[in-house]
Predict the 3D structure of the following.
Amino acid sequence: MHTVVVGTSGTTAEDVIAVARGNARIELSGEAVSALAAARAIVDALAAKPEPVYGVSTGFGALASRHIGHDLRTQLQRNIVRSHAAGMGPRVEREVVRALMFLRLKTVASGHTGVRPEVAQTMADVLNAGITPVVHEYGSLGCSGDLAPLSHCALTLMGEGDAEGPDGTLRPAGELLAAHGIKPVELHEKEGLALLNGTDGMLGMLIMALDDLRRLYTSADITAALTLEGLLGTDTVLAPDLHAIRPHPGQAASAANMRAVLHGSELTGHYQEEEAPRVQDAYSVRCAPQVAGAGRDTLAHAALVAERELAAAIDNPVVLPGGTSEAAGSEGGRVESNGNFHGAPVAYVLDFLAIAAADLGSIAERRTDRLLDKNRSHGLPPFLADDAGVDSGLMIAQYTQAALVSEMKRLAVPASADSIPSSAMQEDHVSMGWSAARKLRTAVDNLARIIGVELYAATRAIGLRRGLTPAPASRAAIAALRAAGADGPGPDRFLAPELAAAEAFVRDGRLIEAVQPVTGPLA
């Protein structure tokens, strides 16, 4: 099994995916253990001083003005976890919780939080044991971090609340820890706060969305090319020099993908041989690289933000070396309050991606509808039906696709444009990044379904163009799709299982895998 080593300098998107989706094991590096111990020494020195230090010897948020004595500090840290574990609604997905916990461990291991090495090791042990805390849909405003979701994870470290075992069974967390030989932690000064105060949930969901969307954008280039073939369109609009004069890298990549798929097709270039010759194809076909390319460039920007966040250590307060502030300790370091927990950078790009995904879904649906309309499909039967009138063909498949697109448009409304005050107006501006991430996950799921419907329709349309041979890459895609359980033209039949097969074929990357032996690597 793959092992991810957590050091002091952040982590990579690949490591997040490996832990969240691949159950990779986690180890703390020697460097991280040393940094944890050094930062803890700073916190312990500050805790021994009579002056109050936020997060070490005070209350939290709007209650930060109260100085907490030594005898109540363990209770203070335990209480912040219990009181903040106030989420409601359905459970979030296992992969989200694993990403959330791993990314919090990444920040803890940086040596900027003051958490003891044994607490960090317990976090790694829980992940390695396959124990997943119960985290709920609602409870984060995306500022002061993903407080409620992270609190539910911290509650498990304390042996409280419920969690899911590696067998998928829900049990009391204390029982699960005992079954795996893990001792519950007793939190010391600052540790409760340090486990809660990060943007780890929204960042984890951003990284997984990027992983999925890269696959879906390449898949959409393939289905756009297949639709172009099905409509007997022209591939001249994909010429490299046309895209070079508008030098957006995503646009060039999408056009190159479509050219590679269409290479060797006998179905392109017939648009002027019809009774009513076309001068040019409709926008949904002709502008496919421009729309998908803009989305690709949005992905690139979002990936840059994610890369920066992965290198960050987000906590409040943070432990820093040196300095002469009032919160300076005797160990050559200090503890400082800051605003790095605000989720705006992540929230914005989550919303950008939802907008781009909605537009990609919209243009794919317009191409599908064109394939089904006998007045615009250039010789194809109505709804690609076998015996139109007796058969309805793919009429309702497009209804389903249209319903998905409509929801995508609603999901594209930015969450980050909203803010609602909390904590007695101390936290008076928040990012809503968790909400942006949750709706993006739904949008990504819908996009896979929308592209799956276009794939199903386009391959059926190509199958109805008898006498002309599709491109070798198209033939490879069609053969693999048929083997996956989505059949070709014919009389009406139960469509839902075949549409589900097409969706899965797109979602898990098999469409890309089917064509790349012919096209070579696609962007």
Observations:
- The chain has a mean pLDDT of 94.
- DSSP finds 19 helices and nine strands in the chain.
